[in-house]
């Protein structure tokens, strides 16, 4: 699934088309990290999610997000992806961040 999302984003970027994601996926910090690392230009989410995603965006560089995304493409399970993302987000309070 991640490869499909990445491929769509890359195709849009090559065509000069801005990529936006709206909805629950954009509002979940772990998915927002993946989307931004793959090259999404805009995220739209409910008001409840804005502060959590904003905290994520301010806590990690775009280069680091891209690096994480390159690594997770080789993982076979969602658990491996989750573990990698958790390991790469130092300084964030996991219980606050993922709850």
Describe the overall structure.
- There is one protein chain.
- With 99 residues, the protein is mostly helical.
- It has one domain.
- The protein contains seven helices and two strands, in the order H-E-H-H-E-H-H-H-H.
- It has helices spanning 2-14, 24-27, 29-38, 47-59, 62-72, 78-87, 94-98; strands at residues 20-22, 42-44.
- The radius of gyration is 13 Å and the shape is globular.
Kindly state the percentage of residues in helix: 55-70%
Q: SSE string, helix = H, strand = E?
A: HEHHEHHHH
- The main sheet orders its strands as 1-2
Number of strands: 2
Quick description:
This protein has 99 residues and is mainly α.
List strands and helices in order, with pairings.
Blueprint lengths: L1 H13 L5 E3 L1 H4 L1 H10 L3 E3 L2 H13 L2 H11 L5 H10 L6 H5 L1
Parallel strand pairs: 1-2
